[in-house]
Design a protein that fits this description.
By secondary structure, the protein is an alpha+beta fold. Helices cover about 40% and strands about 20% of the residues. It contains 28 helices and 29 strands.
Length: about 700
């Protein structure tokens, strides 16, 4: 007898047992013989339920087949060297037979006693079904130690793909994967799905090697033995699904589970307001089909095998612009109170806990925050990622004023902010915490009544002079010129209340144009960021040009009287001051103002235009009286007194024929509604365009 393994099938056996109607039992006998080296005739006849004479005849025919080496003794048969391998049968199996096979596949090594106990069989019945499995080519014995067997299954069932799985398959498989270990009965009960369906789905997945499982034998003294199983891995590629491509419910469950270290199922239901079956259905599907592998242990604690890979799809600014929820306020609040109750957050933001949780998950999913939920409905912030934007891009005008107040005073009360910014409590809270979320400087909130700049910050220039309003330019000019800038003097010039003036000063400080602080009513600038002018004086109003001419022609620049300038121009002193402030803010002059006296330390006033004769177009100088080419008198604007060139827009008075620059005459008529020379009352449309 060769020791080489032989492959046999039903056809081969039928040749030697053609007159026998019990081929199934013959097959079982051959399989049973390979399970143990020595068998007694008595035990074999009891297993097969045949008499010993029939048994001996069958064994004799098996010897004639020359497939097994056997030594026949008086009352037993001893198996010699050699091995039989059966060709796999295409016979259909019952669900019970598949269950046995699945257990063998998932257990790999088992004791016969556990098979008897688990499946409520006697020893003979176990040998019979194992022998049948061997004979049909469904299993192969690879090792025997006493009563312990090692077997491999060889059943041929097509492996399933993810696409071929039905929704019920995914639900059952996913839930099985959730559990550290579970029984078929428990799975059926918890999912409210029939035991038959549960077994059918999972056993087919196991036997087709679509999934790999490990069966655990549990011997119990009083309740009887049972077995559970755990899914080790799925043998099909899962769907790579980025966090932002999950639907809202999936993101919520993944996000909360990622941020909650000891999350129980009941707590997850409470946080999400979702029923148990929806949660289980959702996380089961994710576990079975995607990279998000959930686990539920025996204490109902839910966790993810690996944290999700997050990808910032929206910045904090983008979230604020595209959604109704105020994400920036939320970030500001958790930044100032890193460990905070969710109920307090909801109360302060006038919303419900559900919205707060969803918003925190959105922020986490976009990598804006990192943190964790703690027992007792508490959230703890562990990190913030800021927008990659400049300070100027982040701050709106109100936030620049708020920043200016902090820099000016270091500490500002809620009441002062409410009064200065003219905001309701709700608007103010939103503004303050939204501002804090930007991470500009180290800022704290004390007792929800005071905001503090904990550490001095330097801010860049965020607003150009050209972007300022006329009023803001005037105030900037005043702060730059005044020897002792204060709100009392400013109020007397503008006849407005202090708060309106402070509002603009705060904006200028918060925009980085003025560097300094405010002490009581004093403005204490350390630096004013004014650049040299980017245009000639001719681009300014005629009154500014007149003031500029006065400044250029004054003899003593160290002591210029504002009253004298106003008197010579026949203008109100405060009007002259306001225009002087604009000239200062736009960089035309640098000096010091003390009361009524101006000390001009530097003038950047320049006339850049090229002047041409109104009549012949030849270039002339600004102070020429007659054109040297054509001899005609040089025409000057009746408003600004500068030369009028031939190509400029101009208007002529129908009464006295004097000519003016169109834009300067428009400015003049807004104030006086008369010709600047003959004083005849006229409207703009009555002047002649030339």
């Amino acid at each position: 007898m060769s020791t080489k393994a032989l492959v046999i099938n039903k056809e081969l056996i039928a040749k030697y047992f053609s007159d026998n109607q019990n081929l199934e039992l013959v097959h079982a006998l051959i399989g049973i013989l390979s399970l143990r080296p020595v068998w007694s005739f008595k035990e074999l006849s009891q297993i097969l339920k045949i008499n010993q004479l029939t048994l001996q005849e069958w064994i004799g025919r098996i010897l004639q087949m020359n497939i097994l080496s056997m030594e026949i003794q008086k009352s037993s048969v001893k198996l010699g060297p050699g091995k039989v391998i059966f060709a796999p049968s295409d016979e259909k199996l019952t669900i019970l037979e598949k269950t046995y096979l699945a257990y063998i596949k998932g257990r790999i090594q088992f004791d016969l006693k556990e098979m008897e106990s688990l499946f409520e069989l006697n020893e003979h019945q176990v040998f019979l079904f194992l022998g049948n499995f061997i004979a049909k080519g469904f299993v192969e014995v690879v090792g025997v130690t006493g009563n312990t067997y090692s077997m491999i299954t060889k059943i041929k069932i097509p492996k399933k793909t993810l696409e071929s799985l039905e929704p019920l398959d995914i639900q059952i498989l996913g839930y099985a994967m959730l559990k550290e270990q579970i029984t078929f009965n428990d799975l059926s009960s918890e999912l409210d799905i029939t035991l038959y369906n549960v077994q059918t789905v999972l056993i087919d997945l196991i036997l087709s090697e679509t999934i790999s499982v490990n069966f655990i034998y549990q011997k119990q003294r009083f309740k009887g033995s049972r077995y559970s199983f755990q899914v080790i891995q799925t043998n099909f590629p899962f769907v790579e699904l980025p966090f932002h491509q999950l639907n809202e419910k999936e993101r919520l469950l993944v996000g909360i589970t990622s941020m909650y270290p000891n999350l129980k199922l009941q707590e997850l239901m409470k946080l999400t307001k979702l029923p148990k079956h929806q949660i289980l259905d959702t996380i089961s599907k994710l576990t079975a089909t995607t990279q998000y592998k959930f686990k539920i242990n025996n204490e109902n604690v839910i966790s993810l095998s690996l944290p999700p890979v997050l990808d910032q799809q929206e910045t904090l600014t983008a979230l604020e612009e595209n959604r109704l929820f105020n994400y920036r306020e939320l970030v500001g609040r958790i930044q100032t109170t890193p460990t905070i109750k969710l109920v307090d957050l909801a109360k302060h933001m006038n919303t419900n806990i559900d919205q707060i949780i969803k918003a925190l998950v959105v922020l986490y999913g976009n990598k804006i925050i990192n943190g964790e939920f703690l027992n007792g409905g508490i959230f703890r912030l562990t990190g913030i990622q800021r927008d990659n934007q400049t300070m100027d891009e982040l701050l709106n005008p109100d936030e620049k004023k708020l920043l200016g107040m902090l820099i000016a005073h270091q500490k500002v009360s809620w009441s002062m902010l409410r009064l200065t910014l003219n905001k309701s409590n709700e608007e103010l809270n939103k503004l303050i915490y939204s501002f804090i979320s930007l991470g500009i400087g180290k800022i704290g909130v004390k007792n929800k009544k005071e905001i503090m700049l904990i550490q001095k910050i330097e801010i860049p220039l965020m607003t150009s002079i050209d972007e300022l309003s006329g009023f803001q330019k005037e105030i900037l000019g005043y702060v730059s010129l005044a020897r002792n800038p204060n709100f009392k003097e400013l109020s007397s010039i503008y006849k407005v209340d202090k708060n309106s003036l402070k509002d603009e000063i705060y904006f200028l400080i918060g925009s980085g144009i003025i560097v300094g602080i405010i002490s009581k009513n004093q403005i204490l600038p350390t630096k004013v960021r004014i650049e040299p002018p980017n245009a000639s004086i001719e681009s300014k109003s005629f009154l500014m040009q007149k003031i500029a001419e006065q400044l250029l022609t004054v003899k003593n620049r160290n002591k210029i009287s504002i009253k004298s300038i106003a008197k010579s121009l026949k203008e109100d002193k405060n009007e002259v001051l306001r225009n002087l402030f604009v000239l200062t803010s736009e960089g035309f002059i640098i000096g010091t103002l003390s009361g009524n006296k101006l000390k001009l330390t530097k003038s950047l006033i320049k006339y850049h235009s090229k002047f041409t004769c109104f009549f012949c177009g030849i270039e002339i100088k600004r102070n020429q009286e007659f054109c040297k080419s054509c001899g005609n008198r040089v025409i000057h604007c009746s408003v600004c007194r500068s030369v009028i060139s031939g190509e400029e827009s101009k208007l002529k008075c129908p009464s006295c024929n004097n000519i003016a620059h169109e834009e300067h005459l428009i400015d003049w008529l807004r104030i006086k509604s008369e010709c600047p020379i003959c004083k005849v009352k006229l409207k703009l449309n009555q002047f002649v365009k030339i």
